[in-house]
Amino acid sequence: MTTESSSQPTRLDAPILAAVDGSASSYQAVAWAAVEAGLRHCRLHVVISMAIQTGFGPGMSLGEADLEWLRNDGERILAEATRIARTAAPGNEPPITTEVCFELITPMLIERSAHARMLVVGSRGMGAFQRGLLGSVSTATTHHAHCPVAVIHGISAIDAVSAGQPVLVGVDGTSNSVPALELAFEEASRRKVGLTALHAWSDVSSVDVPVPGWDAAQESAQAALAESLAGYTERFPDVAVRRIVVANQPARSLLDESASSQLVVVGSRGRGGFTSMLLGSTSNVLLHSVEVPMIVVRER
């Protein structure tokens, strides 16, 4: 295990950055991050913040003995995280570096994300009175990070069965979902699986009763999805694409389809206005409901 200083990596050495706090959710995140780093052939950097979270000011002032105890505890958690990472990617282990820091976790991760390929966090932390708060961190980083943010929920989906499932991406038909679509194709190609591209064009649940203009709206939605996917099949000929167009709420449709996917990829913003459900709102809903790993992609 290597304890690394807080010096920022170069772009060529940009790592997958994973945050841990000793919770089961954060260890699942490290396992997923190790597999991702192995697929990308890049370094995995695991960081833990031992800063004492307080409601006022930057944090509690501690003596040298207390700081040493916290550092040792952080090293213990990092050692376990490193063991899990190596177990998760046998034969394809990425280089792993670790770091104990005493900066507040959320601003630290947002700052570090500017120099990372991807930030990986768990969806649930150690609780309101313990060190991690990764549940709140996942919400904050998906809104403010400078790189894609992977949020790992109840399962890391790196088992043999899940590894054969497709990648699911939400497509809203505008340039806002292009970064998510780009990354989703890359992920599917690395994992050697298919891609499910889902476009939901209604703000309400689908109904069986035909309404005026229904067929035209459906055809328009199919054309929008086809236009969004144009060019990707040539760039990624190894990725089989399944197209889904539904008259339903995006969050509900993606949640339903996620049950048969290993990874969900969405953009951080949506179409906007009052004509459709914001993809930003969709990502927020999925953060609290989807069970498989999810990547929120901000504009590159």
Architecture overview:
The model is unreliable at 1-10, 127-134 and 270-279 (pLDDT under 50). The protein is of the alpha/beta class. Helix 3 packs parallel to helix 4 (134-144). The protein has helices at 24-40, 64-88, 105-112, 134-144, 178-191, 214-229, 232-235, 250-258, 279-287; strands spanning 16-19, 44-49, 96-101, 118-122, 149-152, 167-170, 195-200, 241-246, 263-267, 294-297. It has nine helices and ten strands. The chain folds into two domains: 11-152, 3-Layer(aba) Sandwich (Rossmann fold); 162-297, 3-Layer(aba) Sandwich (Rossmann fold), CATH 3.40.50.12370.
Q: Which structural class do the helices and strands define?
A: alpha/beta
Helical proportion, percent range:
25-40%
> Mind telling me the CATH superfamily name of the largest domain?
HUPs
CATH structural architecture of the largest domain: 3-Layer(aba) Sandwich
Number of strands: 10
Termini distance?
32 Å
Summarize this structure briefly:
The chain is an alpha/beta fold and 300 residues long.
Topology:
Blueprint: E1 16-19, H1 24-40, E2 44-49, H2 64-88, E3 96-101, H3 105-112, E4 118-122, H4 134-144, E5 149-152, E6 167-170, H5 178-191, E7 195-200, H6 214-229, H7 232-235, E8 241-246, H8 250-258, E9 263-267, H9 279-287, E10 294-297
Parallel strand pairs: 1-2, 1-4, 2-3, 4-5, 6-7, 6-9, 7-8, 9-10
Antiparallel strand pairs: 5-10
Helix pairs in contact: 1-2, 3-4, 8-9
